Amino acid sequence: MVKDKKSVKPKKRRWNRDDTELTLLALPTTIWYFLFCFMPMFGIVIAFKNFKINGGFLKSFWTSEWVGVNNFKFLFSTRDIWMIIKNTLAYNIVFIILGIVVPVAAAIAIGQLHSKRLTKVYQTAMFMPYFLSWVVVTALVWAFLSYDKGLVNNLLESLGLDRQQWYMKPEMWPPFLVFMNLWKGVGYGMVVYLATITGIDKSYYEAAGIDGATVWQQIRYITLPLMKTVIILMFIMNVGRIFYSDFGLFYQVPRDSNSLYDVVYTLDVYVYKQLKSSTTGMSAAAAFIQSVAGCITILTANAVVRKFDKDSAMI
Amino acid sequence: MSEVKRMRKAKYDEPTGFERFNRVSKPANAVLNIVFILLALACVIPVILVVAISFSAEESITEYGYRFIPKIFSLEGYTFLISQSKMIARALGVSIFVTIAGTVLGVLLTTLMGYVLSRPGYKLNGFLTMVVFIPMVFNGGLVSTYYVVSQLLHLKNTVWALILPLCVSSFNVVVCRTFFKTTVPESLIESAKMDGASQLTIFAKIVLPISKPVLATIGLFLCFSYWNDWYQSMLYIEDAALYSLQALLNAILTNIQMLAKNAATMGLGAAEMLAQMPQEAARMAIVVIIVAPIACAYPYFQKYFISGLTLGAVKG
Q1: Among residues A41, A96, B230, B238, which is most buried (max CB within 10 A)?
Q2: What one-character-per-residue DSSP string does B275-303 give?
Q3: Chain centroid, CA B108 distance in Å
Q4: Beta strands in chain B (DSSP E)
Q5: What is the pLDDT of residues B25-83, one digit of tens each?
Q6: Exposure of B4 by Cβ count < 10 A (0-12 exposed, 13-18 middle, 19+ buried)?
Q7: Using the beta-carbon criterion (under 8 Å), do B112 and A29 form an inter-chain contact?
Q8: pLDDT-based confidence at B262, cuts 50/70/90?
């Protein structure tokens, strides 16, 4: 993005009619950015205030007293916060690894199929979960896991086994959430990577094939190296969001079940729950940590990538 | 775009002799096919189950649980929804209005910004690029966003709380900018400028008409995100009269009491609703109403998604 600055003519040019018109065109969107992105950015300092609603936002803001890092002290005295940060990071690390390995493998595999028509059918079917909202997915999961009517329990019963309270079994949820995350995301990831693979010049494969390279060797020495840039790009974007989690996955799908607290609470769920229970100080502190840590991780990830491969960096 | 064209072309191309030679063996192909059939089924089957439940009779669900093939077939889930048409029609109306208004507004704001950023030599280019770019790496977080939207902008319990916070995303702006930069010929704009056209005229009369693919892409991104949104409703909407279909389903799934509490606003007897609401088939019928338009539409639109995703990844 910074590249743009270079394309701007270096010689000093006066402000002209064009500039005025373009500024007017950009004005509505700029106002939107100011209201919905930059105001909250300044508002982030309420993490250092004892924020109390007192009339409008600005009035509340001015009348709330500064409390320094007290909100953070409270937050870190609860012990929960460590569990929540650990959950957020651990799930994200697993998601990032599997979220790259599985769709890349799937994209390469589906590209090998002989029938292009079937490829299209599988791809379309696997893309479907991406278009469903987490609320809908919650209803789908409920149809499988509900205690008295769920499909899984019906199956267990017909096999002579006991029905299980799935929504009260913390040990099965981490793998299950990983599965659900993959279920929803694999089709999307596969489509993105497949677009890259279909963009690769066919003559590379022809040359390799003539030289006697096996399909495996072609994948290893042609496909994967040429996918490097897009894989790294996806990687940075995901690492940058390592302090964020998919709220719907962790809040909706487990149906906010109390017995799953230890395994499904991530930063987003915590911030939301605290916000709704009106403990603004703690949730503002947690949201502050999330924003700042998120910003640092994305800039770091990008800087690391730029060091190794300038073309793959985002900034 | 070229990927899509190439893919479409490749689909109908018979393999050449060399392609026949340079590909996985027949048994390997068979194994891969089986794997993908299983994966595809895993993605589609839950939806089929929900459709089956929505067509089951209540007593068959109570007795046999959820099944792929209903023991007793029935339309009562749907007739129940029709009997509650006031609530359902209202939620459907909110969903449709939010989707259409949000998409139109979002496309307009996104393309305007994308166009301005695509103009070389524009004085404020660097400044506006930062405006678009900073939110990609830093944001105010949920708490201050929540207070800004509800306390400063006073959007709580208005339909605008469902529309405005979602209508622009920096990703979409970058997609637009890249598209305009790469596909709209500079000479076209220059010659229009010579003829004395204003930037607004150029944007509306020249740039937009030749940018239909990117409009379709952005429009679809927005359409799906509005239709599928429940989070904004959960944050900002307490008045059940403003529930979208997703919010309604969410409320039914999580807390029937909440609906009853707000039933008065919707002109329904609270007791009557509570007695009738927990119907399994009806619940799943709402899911079907939400999913059906998506399931019918996305196979035709997925190419625009793919082109948008690949465009966004290109640095311009």
Answers
A1: B230
A2: HHTT-HHHHHHHHHHHHHHHHHHHHHHHH
A3: 17
A4: none
A5: 888 899 999 999 999 999 999 999 999 888 888 777 877 888 888 888 888 888 888 88
A6: middle
A7: yes
A8: low
The pair of three-digit structure tokens given for residue A296, joined into one six-digit string: 């640092």
Kindly identify which residue of chain B lies nearest to residue A302, measuring between CA atoms: B137
A62 shares contact with chain B (CB less than 8 Å): no
Q: How far apart are CA B277 and CA B285, in angstroms?
A: 12
Cβ under 8 Å to A: B residues 188-217: 193, 198-200, 203
What are the Cα distances from residue A105, in Å, to A109, A205, A233, A290? 6, 18, 17, 32
Radius of gyration, CA atoms only, chain B: 25
The two three-digit tokens of residue B39, written as one number: 């994966």
For the record, the structure tokens of A183 come out as 């279920």
ipTM of the complex: 0.87
Asked whether the beta carbons of A51 and A284 are under 8 A apart, the reply is: yes
Least Cα distance to B260 among B206, A72, B252 occurs for B252
Which two tokens mark A8?
Answer: 């701007």
> Residues B297-305: contacts with CB within 8 Å, 24+ apart?
B298/A127, B298/A128, B298/A131, B298/B224, B299/A124, B301/B216, B301/B220, B302/A124, B302/A127, B302/A191, B303/B4, B304/B213, B304/B216, B304/B217, B304/B220, B305/A191, B305/B217, B305/B220, B305/B221
Do B244 and B98 meet the contact criterion of CB atoms below 8 Å apart? yes
Least confident of B50-59, B111-120, B167-176: B50-59
Chain B residues close to A7, C-beta within 8 Å? 120-121
Closest partner residue to A32 (CB to CB) among B28, B109, B315 is B109
- Cα of first residue to Cα of last residue in chain A, in angstroms, is 6
Confirm if B207 and B229 have CB atoms less than 8 A apart. no
d(CA B120, CA A10): 12
Residue A15: its chain B contacts at CB < 8 A? 123
Residues B279, B271: Cα–Cα separation, whole Å: 15
For residue B203, pLDDT beyond 90: yes
Kindly report, residue by residue over A157-189, the tens digit of the pLDDT. Answer: 889 888 888 888 899 999 999 999 999 999 989
pTM greater than the 0.95 cutoff:
no
Are A133 and B144 an interchain contact pair (Cβ–Cβ within 8 Å)?
A: no
Structure tokens that stand for B121 in this block: 């030599």
- A-interface mutation test, from B16, B41, B43, most A Cβ less than 10 A away: B43
- Distance (Å, whole) CA A282 – CA B297: 43
Q: Name the more confident of B273 and B158.
A: B158
Which of A21, A125, A280 is closest, CB to CB, to B199?
A: A21
Q: Exposed, middle or buried by CB within 10 Å (0-12, 13-18, 19+), for A171?
A: exposed
In chain B, positions 42-61, which contact chain A (CB-CB < 8 Å)? 42-44, 46-47, 49-50, 53, 61
What residue of B is the nearest CA neighbor of A143? B66
d(CA B47, CA B288): 8
Whether the CB-CB separation of B4 and B307 falls below 8 Å is answered with yes
